[in-house]
Design goal:
Number of strands: 0
Shape: globular
CATH topology: Na+/H+ antiporter like fold
Strand content: under 5%
CATH architecture: Up-down Bundle
Number of helices: 15
CATH class: Mainly Alpha
Helix content: over 70%
């Protein structure tokens, strides 16, 4: 039964995603669902925790193997992505406010969905966890430098507690709970019991992911619909930004760095997916009223980021076969 349920959710990933997005926008427009955003923390924990159960204390010994993916992901996140975004916003001649918002989004660490995507794609969760942890820590220093440069000397205070809170919710708490759960099940009931429970983790993560997508679009529906012009401006930028980075990673990791499939997916989902919520929080906290307007741009990017990564996730089976050929 659970295998059929999993297969259905995975096979129909794209239509389910677009139905949920449309439903979220429609309901969010007719009803005030902004309060739904308060559920984000709980949903993120529900999404990542089941995937972390697949990790064990013994698997943590493979941390050394994550060195190359870690270096690549950090270079991509803090050097290549900002340079690509700068090129795109220059070519499309966007406003100064949009330029600042998009550049800050480009250097943001992975989204709250990042590890969930990796788990569903059966990528390397250990590499993904290490990349996210270090990217969040480095962002404490990178955000002020980038912000100071972009705003020509503006005092740029970064909410460090907010960054650490994100790190705690996205990585540390699910990781600890997941390992404790795995060790308890195997020691108390044996490995066979764990193997019976394992299929449920993918189902829980995918259901939570769908719910999170609904919450994102339902809570920001009116903002999106009231800024349709900005959607069309950002559409080619988003398409090229996500598309070019994934295309480069596919060729680079397959033919040059010769990564295994798991490490490749860890890099993709921790560097391509950007933490939109964190970017919005920083814009609002730093720029005040202007920041609330600038926050519209990363919020609109959620309209493209989630479907784009879900489409990529849909083809993870073919990508695996390609990497293993």
């Amino acid at each position: 039964m659970i295998k059929k349920f999993n297969k259905n959710l995975s096979k129909n990933m794209l239509p389910y995603t677009f139905i949920i997005i449309i439903l979220g926008i429609i309901l969010g427009y007719f009803y005030d669902l902004k309060s739904f955003s308060r559920l984000t923390t709980i949903i993120v924990l529900m999404m990542i925790y089941p995937m972390m159960i697949n990790l064990s204390l013994s698997s943590l010994k493979k941390i050394r193997e994550s060195k190359k993916p870690l270096i690549q992901a950090l270079i991509l996140n803090f050097i290549i992505a900002p340079l690509l975004m700068y090129f795109l916003i220059t070519v499309f001649e966007v406003s100064d406010q949009m330029k600042i918002a998009m550049m800050l989004l480009a250097i943001a660490p992975a989204s709250s969905m990042g590890l969930g995507y990796i788990g569903l794609a059966e990528g390397d969760m250990i590499s993904g966890s290490i990349i996210i942890a270090l990217a969040f820590i480095l962002s404490i220093f990178v955000f002020p430098l980038a912000g100071h440069y972009l705003t020509v000397g503006t005092i740029f205070n970064i909410p460090i507690l907010l960054i650490l809170k994100n790190l705690l919710i996205i990585l540390i708490i699910p990781l600890i709970l997941g390992i404790i759960t795995r060790e308890y099940i195997e020691r108390r009931h044996g490995t066979e019991k764990y193997l019976k429970i394992k299929p449920y983790s993918s189902s829980l993560t995918l259901v939570a992911l769908y719910f999170l997508i609904f919450v994102i679009f339902a809570s920001k529906s009116r903002l999106i619909l009231n800024n349709l012009i900005d959607i069309w401006v950002l559409f080619p930028i988003a398409l090229l930004f996500y598309g070019i980075i994934i295309f480069i990673l596919l060729l680079l990791n397959k033919y040059v760095l010769k990564f295994e499939y798991g490490h490749h997916q860890a890099v993709v989902f921790t560097s391509v997916s950007k933490n939109i919520a964190l970017t919005i929080a920083i814009l609002v906290s730093v720029f005040g009223d202007d920041g609330e307007y600038m926050a519209i741009f990363p919020a609109i990017m959620a309209l493209f980021q989630a479907p784009f990564l879900m489409i990529y996730l849909k083809f993870s089976g073919k990508i695996r076969r390609w990497f293993e050929s």
